[in-house]
Every structure is written in structure tokens, then in C-alpha cells.
Amino acid sequence: MSRKTFSIVxxxxxxxxxxxxxxxxNLMGSFLADARxxxxxxxxxxxxxxxxxxxxxxxxxxxVEARGGSAxxxxxxxxxxxxxxxxxxxxxxxxxxGQISTRxxxxxxxxxxxxxxxxxxxxxxxxxxxxxxxxxxxxxxGGGFTNETLSATLRLAVPILSESGRLIARALAIARxxxxxxxxxxxxxxxxxxxxxxxxxxxxxxxxxxxxxxISFVMGLVGGxxxxxxxxxxxxxxxxxxxSTAWAVVFTALWVVGPLVCVWRWWKRRxxxxxxxxxxxxxxxxxxxxxxxxxxxxxxxGCVKGQSILAKSGKTRxxxxxxxxxxxxxxxxxxxxxxxLELAHHIAARVGRLSVVTPTGHRIDVxxxxxxxxxxxxxxxxxxxxxxxxxSSPLMAWRPPR
Length: 402
Hints:
By secondary structure, the protein is an alpha+beta fold. The protein has three domains: 3-20 and 169-271, no CATH class; 54-160, Immunoglobulin-like (Sandwich), CATH 2.60.40; 274-391, no CATH class. It contains eight helices and 17 strands. It has helices spanning 3-31, 163-202, 207-239, 245-271, 293-300, 337-351, 372-391, 394-397; strands at residues 35-36, 44-49, 59-67, 71-80, 86-90, 108-116, 126-141, 144-159, 274-279, 290-291, 303-305, 308-310, 316-319, 325-326, 331-334, 354-357, 363-366. It has a seven-stranded antiparallel sheet. A four-stranded antiparallel sheet has the order 1-2-3-6, with helices on one face. A four-stranded antiparallel sheet has the order 5-4-7-8, with no helix packed on it. Strand 4 (71-80) and strand 5 (86-90) form a beta hairpin. Helix 1 runs parallel beside helix 3.
């Protein structure tokens, strides 16, 4: 897959992910609610359990949210269980007059309710709650709106856990969040690797390709950030039983910045590696045309890892496919021209005379009968001669008229 095609694919995936996340952002809370009315899009009530791991005698916190219409307000909330629990809370109710100014596509109001776990309950029991909500919504129609008072009854079973049960449940929630983060990290890393290989095949980027890559990056980042908030940040916040905006920002930033920093550092190291390609003369018919990976590993002072060898200095790398390394077409990635030339000289001593094509397209004749210093000096002299030829050309000598 070419880099341009890959950029288009990633951009489209990111675009539709961002578009879907933005379209569902107002409904996502209802989908993730611990209890809700059946009507998700229209007027209804959502209940969120903010302390999902209460212990005997501990505190339970729930958020009751009325939503729908152009504006919504909670009038009263009554929370009861089947025996003795009886908690009441009040919201703001109708706070709008003859005109409504809203910031979102639907109104909402959230009322927090706090109460203690009844003393009769022990670890392993369930607190069966009945939540009665009276609320009002402003429904648009006929160029205006009408206020409708509605009510809903919801049920919520809250398990009571022991201290060890709380610890295990929170650890499992954190493990689930970390697993989701690992999948996201692998996705970002995989995209970077595939893109890098496409970059290797396609050569230098053009201006319009860079613009396409930037759009793809932004779309993917927007979609991934929204997904990270719902799947990663909220899971960790539930594990620590916190709904602080600061924690939401920290966890979402970790989701976005963590993989990008790792990929950026890897890409920065990789950008320092220049590609030198070996080529055997077409007339070479006799003698070996490949080498053992162990030989190159010994020359580089590195070790074989899969189908890759990295020098001990970290400045030179060789990758291949197959059991042996084919010399013709072999790519040496190195941050130091001298290191790449020394490796090519070692290979030439094994298979015979060869050529090395530099990143600038220059061809170096590597003869094992000559020393590395002689080959490097000849290459440097050729570069200097080419530069002098360019400077003495009529185009460089031309000066604009005054």
C-alpha cells in the first residue's frame, strides 16, 4: 500500500470515528448509564452510580440526570429501598422563562444524591433501590415551546463488597482500562510502522501528500481522543471513584500523548538512519550472492533479533526476509556513512565486488582489494568535483540585470 493510499484510509477511519463520536456524544452518557428510561433520544432520566464499589457502612453516590427537549430541570428525587432507606433531593426545576438559551442539542440537569449504606447490609448483599424522579422539559413546537412535567421510576441494584472485594473489583477495572490502552497503543504503533514502510517505498513526500497526512492525523486524533475519554478515562475514573474534571483531563491526555510521544521518539531516531542499498554487478555469476545473518551480526557487534540486526552503537541496522541475507538489493540503514561503508566492505570481502547507492543517488564502487579510506576519499573527491561543476555552470554564473 502506498503512503498516499494509506493516508486516505487512516483519514477516512479517523473522520468517521470522529463524526460518529461527535454525533453520539449526547447519547453516549445514556448508553453508559447504570439505569435509564427506555427512551434514549427523547425526554428521559439517566442514573449514574458514582461509587460502584461500596463497603458495609460506606457512602453511596448517584447522579440523577433529567434530559430532553430544549431545556430540562429536575423537580424532586426520591430514593428508597425495600426496607428503611428513604432519601429525598431537589433540583432547580424550571429555571427558564419565555425564552430559552441552550448550549447543546438537548437540555439536561443533574442532581447528586448521597446516602450511607444501611447498617443491616453486609458484604455480599445487594442494595435494591427504587428511584422516583419528577422533572420538567421544554418541548419545542409551533415556533415556540411548551413545558411538560414528567415522572419516571428506575431500579438500581448496588452490590455491597468487602474490602478485599473492593480491591479486586477496582483492580479489574484498572486492568480493563489498561488493556484498552494497550490495544490503542498497538493500533497507533502499527499505523506508524506501516506508514514508515510506505514512506520507504514511495520516496520523498510531495506538498499535497503532506497536507493529506496532516488532515489524516487530525481526523484520527479527534476520533481517538473522544474514544479514549469514554473507553479509558471514564473507566479509570470509575475505578478510583472520582468524577473530577481534572482526572478526566489527565487520563484523556495520557491516552493521547503517551503513544504519540513514543512514536515521535522512535520516528526521530529512525529519521537519522539513511538508506544505503547494495547492488551486485550484472556480470557476477559465480560465487556466493548472500551471507549468513550471524556474519553481519559479528561485523556490527550486534545480535540477530527476528529478521533484523541492530549494531551495538545503535547507528546501523540491517533487515531482511528469508533464512540468509541476499546481498543484491540489501538495504543498510545507518546514521554514519562510514559505518555503512565498512559493512559493505566486509560483505564485498565475502561475495566480491559490489556497489552501494547512497540516499542522494550516488553510486560507490566497493572493491575488497582497496581500503575503506581509499574508497571514502574517492567518493568525497567525486562529490567535491560535482559541486565545483555546478558552481561553474552558466546558470550559477548568471546575475539578474540591475
